[in-house]
Design a protein that fits this description.
The complex is a heterodimer of chains A (143) and B (104). Chain A is mainly alpha-helical and 143 residues long. Chain A has one domain: PtsI, HPr-binding domain (Enzyme I, Chain A, domain 2). Helix content of chain A is 62%, strand content 0%. In chain A, 24% of the residues are buried. By secondary structure, chain B is an alpha+beta fold. Chain B has a single domain, classed as 2-Layer Sandwich (Histidine-containing Protein, Chain: A), CATH 3.30.1340.10. Chain B is elongated. The chains are: A mainly alpha (143), B alpha+beta (104).
Chain lengths: 143, 104
């Protein structure tokens, strides 16, 4: 029989999941007029894929991790669906800015706005916006 | 062209715009969750809905701008609605804020 001081509640066995945060590389170019439609389409499909993936992740989290975390990432869907913000990004694309840069410009603007407010909870939301920024274009390759 | 009556272009109907001043009474103010509840409720209206706060006009259908506006507990705000369903939009917006934006 072993004798000693227990230091942990027990052991856990499960599959390891490694989350790698790789930087999304994109080629920042001026979009010629005849490609603006498809660039807008690329932006919208990136948003759609992001929302879809986030929704699935939130549902998984609700069951396995904790509902509070799920609530936070569900908020990301609401944030990126903001029609006013989407309009701002679209306007830039219509002027020839590539989708990634346009989204980054606008999201950075909100990160700055949230960080500048003298309120801890609002400042925390800046982290959410920066997560959205990292995730949105992860799954869309330039064609 | 003689005898032809030129029809005067129809004037765009203007809405009178309705507004109400009130104080935010839920503890979190317009933070993530309450703001989401609010945006989802008012987005179904066609009217433009604005919250006047601290000298700024905040688009009430924009979650990001509402969060950035940092409207807290005790803030005095004015809700303004303008458009074809302005009365109903204002009524629901005011009712939601007064009821604490879904906070328990």
């Amino acid at each position: 029989m072993l004798k000693g001081i227990p230091v942990s509640d027990g052991i856990g066995i499960g599959t390891v999941r490694i989350i790698k945060n790789k930087e999304v590389k994109f080629d920042d170019r001026v979009i010629p007029e005849n490609e603006i439609e498809s660039e807008l389409g690329r932006f919208h499909s990136a948003v759609d894929v992001f929302c879809e993936r986030t929704k699935i992740m939130a549902e998984e989290m609700e069951q396995s991790v904790n509902p509070k975390e799920a609530e936070i990432i569900k908020g990301h869907i609401q944030m990126i669906s903001d029609p006013f913000m989407i309009g701002q990004i679209e306007d830039q694309i219509k002027n020839g800015t590539c989708a990634e840069t346009a989204a980054e410009n606008t999201l950075n603007q909100f990160i700055e706005m949230f960080s500048a407010v003298d309120d801890e909870l609002t400042q925390q939301r800046a982290t959410d916006v920066s997560d959205i920024k990292k995730e949105t274009f992860k799954n869309t390759a330039r064609h | 062209m003689r005898g032809r009556v030129l029809r005067r272009p129809r004037r765009k109907r203007r809405f009178k715009m309705v507004s109400k001043q009130l104080t935010v009474t839920n503890s979190q103010g317009f933070h993530m969750r309450p703001a989401t509840v609010f945006v989802n409720a008012v987005s179904k209206y066609k009217s433009n809905i604005t919250i006047k706060f601290n000298g700024n006009d905040v688009n009430a259908k924009s979650l990001m701008n509402l969060i950035a506006a940092c409207i807290k507990f005790g803030s005095n705000i004015e809700v303004v609605a303008e458009g074809e369903d302005e009365e109903a939009a204002l009524a629901e917006a005011v009712q939601l804020i007064e009821a604490g934006l879904g906070e328990e």
